[in-house]
Specification:
Elements: E1 5-10, H1 15-27, E2 31-34, H2 45-59, E3 63-67, H3 71-77, E4 85-87, H4 91-101, E5 105-109, H5 115-127, H6 134-144
Parallel strand pairs: 1-2, 1-3, 3-5, 4-5
The structure holds D-ribose.
D-ribose (RB5) binds near residues 11, 13, 69, 71 and 72.
Length: about 150
């Protein structure tokens, strides 16, 4: 059986945490598809968010996006229909956003979280399941929301 895959990306501010999370996930048996950044040289987080979200949508694999706060990545990622990106600062949020929102992208702030907490949040996110039922209806409502209705 092939290993589960996670798609990951960061900007320059998230580069070190991306490296730490990637190593952690590889040690725990995940395949990592790393879509950059490749260094700590300044880069634009929306472009990386776009690359990761397109890969999540085509592959069905979960995504992780890391910037300094996690906020820019989550704003950019949530522009994509079908992406439900959740900025999580603790394990409770990570569990609940999988259970109730079926989040498919986890956003982390490298300037907010220590490496160990970030790894623990990632573990909980990837191990938690969507509960379905009434939450499925609400997700459909998110997908069809627009300014007119
Ligand atoms: C980069 O300085 C910073 O703005 C970026 O990493 C992120 O925090 C944006 O939301």
């Amino acid at each position: 059986m092939s290993s589960p895959t996670v798609v990951i990306g960061s900007d320059h501010a998230g580069f070190d945490l991306k490296t730490a999370v990637t190593r952690h996930l590889q040690e725990t048996g995940f395949e990592i598809k790393d879509l950059g950044a490749r260094s700590k040289e300044s880069c634009d987080y929306p472009l990386v968010a776009g690359d990761v979200c397109r890969e999540v949508l085509t592959s069905g694999h979960p995504g992780i996006l890391i910037c300094g706060t996690g906020m820019g990545m989550s704003m950019a990622a949530n522009r994509f229909p079908g992406i439900r990106a959740a900025l999580c600062t603790n394990e409770y949020l990570a569990r609940m956003t999988r259970a109730h929102n079926d989040a498919n992208v986890l956003c982390l702030g490298s300037r907010v979280l220590g490496d160990e907490l970030a790894k623990s949040i990632v573990d909980v996110f990837l191990a938690s399941d969507f509960e379905g039922e009434r939450h499925q209806r609400r997700i459909k409502q998110i997908e069809t929301l627009n300014a007119n209705s």
